[in-house]
């Protein structure tokens, strides 16, 4: 396989860096507007500020990589896999929005995402996704007392 021609400027890395710095700015702005009531050392703004610093550093690292040059040409996008993942997200939103619940939506999300990564055993992936979604639902519902979107299966539990 011949060596890929190095590029002098990586536009996608610069765009990702710009997006990360923008997310950091939004996080820092939102954290500065939070009420800072805390009876202990760390208040509610601590984690958003940590994330803002992390995203800013990551964004600047992307800028350095973009302008340093010498990066190989990226591979072509796999639009079929992108379609499967996009369809999986749409299916999750639709199932939850139409009252199907977390378990069915997450099962479809898992199986369709596995298909996007090239796995062909769709029925097995549905079973694995169902088992994982059921476990997650039970952990959130029973152990953490947090409610996930309810559907017909969740009402049986």
TrEMBL record:
Pfam families xrefs: TctB
Keyword Cytoplasm attributed: no
Key words, A-Z: Membrane, Transmembrane, Transmembrane helix
Residue intervals passing through the bilayer: 12-29, 50-69, 81-110, 122-140
Domain DUF1468: start-end pairs: 15-149
Protein name: Tripartite tricarboxylate transporter TctB family protein
Species: Plantimonas leprariae
């Amino acid at each position: 396989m011949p060596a890929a021609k190095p590029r002098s400027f990586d536009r996608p890395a610069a765009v990702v860096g710009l997006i990360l710095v923008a997310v950091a700015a939004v996080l820092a702005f939102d954290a500065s507007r939070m009420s800072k009531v805390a009876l202990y050392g760390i208040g509610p703004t601590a984690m958003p500020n940590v994330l803002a610093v992390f995203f800013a550093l990551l964004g600047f690292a992307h800028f350095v990589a973009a302008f340093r040059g010498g990066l190989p040409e990226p591979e072509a996008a796999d639009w079929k896999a992108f379609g499967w993942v996009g369809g999986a997200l749409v299916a999750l939103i639709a199932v939850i929005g139409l009252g199907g619940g977390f378990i069915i939506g997450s099962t479809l999300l898992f199986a369709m995402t596995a298909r996007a990564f090239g796995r062909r055993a769709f029925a097995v992936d549905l079973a694995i996704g169902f088992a994982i979604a059921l476990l997650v639902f039970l952990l959130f519902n029973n152990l953490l007392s947090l409610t996930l979107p309810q559907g017909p299966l969740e009402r049986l539990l």
